[in-house]
C-alpha cells in the first residue's frame, strides 16, 4: 500500500486534523542511512510529522524540521514540501540503546536527550519564518505538540509512531496531528480531550492495522469528522550534480584549489539520501573557473 496523508476536520469546523501512513517512506530512509532501530524510529517520527506539516504549506513553500539534542543521536533534520515529498537524515544514524524498562519500547527520548526543536518555513519571502521551542521529552510527538502551542499559538496534539519488525525493517509507521481552531467551544475541546485519552499510543493503533481514516474517526469521534482528501507522501530527494556543485563552490576558492592540488577525484555524498557524486580534477577546474568568472565564489 502506498503512503498517504488524509486531511480532515470536524463538521462544525472547530477542529482540523491530519493522519498519515508512512511505512514505505520510513523504510526508504532506513535503507538510505542504515539506521539502527532506535534511530529509524526517531527519524521516522520526524519524517511522518513532516509529511503532514508539509500539507499545511502552499505552492513552492519548503518546511525544515531540525532537532538538536545532547543525547547520542546529536540531531535530526527533515525537509518537506507541499506536494508530500519528504527527506531527512540523522547526524548519528547507528546509535544503539536498550529499550525502555518501563514499557520495553524504543528509547527515542534517550537517544535525542535535551535540546531544541527548530521549524523553518521558507515561503519565498526575503527571510524565512523560524520558530524555536525547547525539547520537552525528546519523543518528538510531545515536542511538536509543545512547539505548536508556544510558537504558533495553536493548541494541538501530535501522535507519531514507528513499529519495527524482528529483522529491523519497518513494519508500520504513521501518526496524526489534531489542532483546535480559534473560537472552538469548550464542549468540542472536552470531546477531543476524552478521545485522546483513549489513544494509548500510535504504535498500538498501527499494530491493530488502523488506517489514517480510522485514526481520524478515533480522534474526532463524536464530532462528525469529514475527510476532505487523501494525499500522497513519499521519501524523495531532489539532489543533483548542479546542487552538489553549488555546495562545492560554497566552500570557497582556497578549499576548491586545495582539492584540485590533491590531484584526486573527490566524492561528495548527499546528506539526505547518501547518493555519491564524483568530481574529477578536470571537472573541479572547470567548476572553479566558471564560478570565478561569474563572481560566485569567495576566497
Describe what you observe in this structure:
- With 299 residues, this protein is of the alpha+beta class.
- The chain folds into two domains: 232 residues, Hsp33 domain (3-Layer(bab) Sandwich); 53 residues, CBS domain Like (Alpha-Beta Complex), CATH 3.90.1280.10.
- Helices cover 34% and strands 28% of the residues.
- It is built from ten helices and 13 strands.
- The chain has a six-stranded mixed beta sheet, covered by helices on one side. The chain has a five-stranded antiparallel beta sheet with strand order 8-9-2-1-10, sandwiched between helices. A two-stranded antiparallel ribbon has the order 12-13.
- Helix 9 packs antiparallel against helix 10.
- The model has no long low-confidence stretch (mean pLDDT 94).
> How many distinct folded domains?
2
The CA-CA distance between the termini, in Å, is 51 Å
pLDDT < 50 runs, ≥5 residues: none
* Order of helix and strand elements from N to C terminus: EEHHEEEHEEHEEHHHEEHHEEH
- Assign the CATH topology of the largest domain: Hsp33 domain
The strand order across the widest sheet is 7-6-3-4-5-11
CATH architectural type of the largest domain: 3-Layer(bab) Sandwich
Largest sheet: 6 strands, mixed
Helix content: 25-40%
Instruction: State mean pLDDT (0 to 100 scale).
Output: 94
| CATH H-level homologous superfamily name of the largest domain | Hsp33 domain
Question: How does the overall form come out from the CA principal axes?
Answer: globular
Q: From the alpha-carbon coordinates, what is the Rg to the nearest angstrom?
A: 21 Å
Sheet-strand content, in percent, reads 25-35%
What is the level 1 CATH name of the largest domain?
Answer: Alpha Beta
* Strands, total number: 13
The structure class reads alpha+beta
Counting DSSP H or I runs of 4 or more residues, the number of helices is 10
Amino acid at each position: 500500500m502506498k503512503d498517504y496523508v488524509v486531511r480532515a476536520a470536524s463538521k462544525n469546523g472547530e477542529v482540523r486534523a491530519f493522519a498519515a501512513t508512512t511505512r514505505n517512506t520510513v523504510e526508504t530512509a532506513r535503507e538510505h542511512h542504515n539506521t539502527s532501530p532506535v534511530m529509524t524510529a526517531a527519524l521516522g517520527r520526524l519524517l511522518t510529522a513532516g509529511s503532514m506539516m508539509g500539507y499545511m504549506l502552499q505552492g513552492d513553500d519548503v518546511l525544515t524540521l531540525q532537532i538538536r539534542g545532547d543525547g547520542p543521536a546529536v540531531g535530526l533534520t527533515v525537509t518537506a514540501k507541499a506536494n508530500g515529498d519528504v527527506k531527512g537524515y540523522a547526524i548519528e544514524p547507528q546509535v544503539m540503546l536498550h529499550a525502555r524498562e518501563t514499557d520495553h519500547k524504543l528509547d527515542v527520548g534517550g537517544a535525542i536527550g535535551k535540546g531544541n526543536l527548530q521549524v523553518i518555513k521558507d515561503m519565498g519571502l526575503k527571510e524565512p519564518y523560524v520558530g524555536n521551542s525547547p525539547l520537552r521529552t525528546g519523543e518528538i510527538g510531545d515536542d511538536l505538540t509543545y512547539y505548536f502551542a508556544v510558537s504558533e499559538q495553536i493548541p494541538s496534539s501530535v501522535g507519531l509512531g514507528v513499529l519495527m519488525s524482528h529483522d529491523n525493517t519497518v513494519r508500520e509507521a504513521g501518526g496524526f496531528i489534531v489542532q483546535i481552531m480559534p473560537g472552538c467551544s469548550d464542549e468540542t475541546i472536552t470531546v477531543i480531550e476524552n478521545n485522546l485519552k483513549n489513544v494509548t499510543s500510535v504504535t498500538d493503533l498501527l499494530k491493530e492495522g488502523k488506517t489514517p481514516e480510522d485514526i481520524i474517526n478515533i480522534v474526532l469521534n463524536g464530532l462528525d469528522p469529514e475527510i476532505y482528501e487523501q494525499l500522497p507522501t513519499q521519501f524523495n530527494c531532489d539532489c543533483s550534480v548542479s546542487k552538489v556543485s553549488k555546495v562545492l563552490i560554497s566552500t570557497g576558492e582556497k578549499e576548491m584549489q586545495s582539492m584540485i592540488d590533491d590531484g584526486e577525484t573527490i566524492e561528495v555524498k548527499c546528506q539526505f539520501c547518501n547518493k555519491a557524486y564524483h568530481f574529477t580534477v578536470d571537472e573541479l577546474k572547470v567548476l572553479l573557473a566558471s564560478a570565478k568568472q561569474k563572481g560566485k565564489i569567495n576566497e
